[in-house]
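thoughts on my protein:
***
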Amino acid sequence: MMETSMSANPISIRIRPSENGSVVNPNVYGHFAEHLGRGIYEGLWVGEDSLIPNTRGLRNDVVAALRELNIPVLRWPGGCFADEYHWKDGIGPRERRPSLINTHWGGVVENNHFGTHEFFDLCEQLGAEPYVCGNVGSGTPQEMMEWVEYITSDAESPMANLRRSNGRQKPWKLRYFGVGNESWGCGGSMRPEYYADEYRRYNTFVKNYSGNQVYRIACGANSGDLHWTEVLMERAGRHMDGLSLHYYTLCDGWPPRGSAIEFTEEEWGKIVRSALDMGRLLNEHIEIMDRFDPEKRVGLIVDEWGTWFECEPGSTPGFLYQQNGIRDAVVAALTLHIFHTRADRVAMANIAQLVNVLQATILTDGERFLRTPTYWVFEMLKGHQGGTTLGLDFDVPTCEVAGISIPALSVSATRNRAGETLASFANLDIANDREIEFEAQGSDPVGRLLASSSMLGHNTFDAPDAVSPRPLELRAEAGRVRFELPRHSVATIRFCA
């Protein structure tokens, strides 16, 4: 392991007084929950008869922790699962719901105990907007149309009456609806030209009922597939409100390699470099979208992102269960900063996934649960939601990690409507602490720090708070605050108006 040190000169960061950017859509802090592994079952749903305390089957401890994140939007039921999900299997008395085999994720039995009613109950308990992904791959336009009617219609109609018979009198509000998922792969192995036509066909039957206005999201590209984005924008752009993009942070490309918590310095460098690539990909897709949509009416929806490693030893391979450490936290902060800088086009992002899957915010083990370092990044940075981005002036230092050159620092700042400023910082360096001098933007600054003595630091069920926020010591000096930003850490400073 490298020896660590304090960088020689402080990094001076100033806010450009005349440069305000775009508003960070709160939905950039969205999440994703798929029927995958222990993400839904055990992670969120335990059933009313469980010994784990719950409200209508949803476990209280996890829901209470997630409420603290101010989750704006939650995507469900997939993912690859969405294109084999038939929604009528998940309504009515649970003992009568048919079981199926989850062919994508482990070949386990899906009993459909968590369906439409349970999902909307979860969203209501969380205070999150629901984002439902419809089945294009193995479903029909009629099935999709009837699902939207079931959810949102207040008419005397077959689907609305079916909902009422299942215990929900008033319709729900459904703002966000995805017309298929990964149609280039697990959602149907389609060409973009074919999917563009299918999108237009299916989208025709996604109706607005009873005053509900659906924001329609088309399936977008797999990371760098620019041709897909060009075809969709050209052939279907005027029929959509949003276009998705999927990009995962990987150590050495596909398939996922390495461990989330046992890795080398070189692997740290590769992961950070992969995370930085999100910015390049966004720029390339946005350039195409700007050509076809200069008014920026269509939002870019990054509805799957995050780190992806090999499953934890001893876990079921198809369950995608991985641990989560300070490296994941740094990647999360860096990625959210990247979204902030493109807030005029990035309208939503959904980290994969909420509980027990990939870069999760919560891990559970039966009745036990813990908040991961990624959880704490979302909790610390949630004040950026709805804030206006502020221009920053500073010289970005670089560092070498096992011969890989990366920027050593990522910074973002926003100001909310009340005039409060939130600045967030990520030290990407594993060898050097950094002395930061930040221009004060208000009074009573309060700092918080998420750090670990080791780049391998993570939380366990026996030590669930090993990596958790603590106060950040600030030194006020003539309109500035100075502080030490430890290696591989994330920090925030909030200024009152």
Remarks:
- Residues 265-292 form the longest helix (28 residues).
- The longest strand covers residues 11-23.
- The two ends are 43 Å apart (CA to CA).
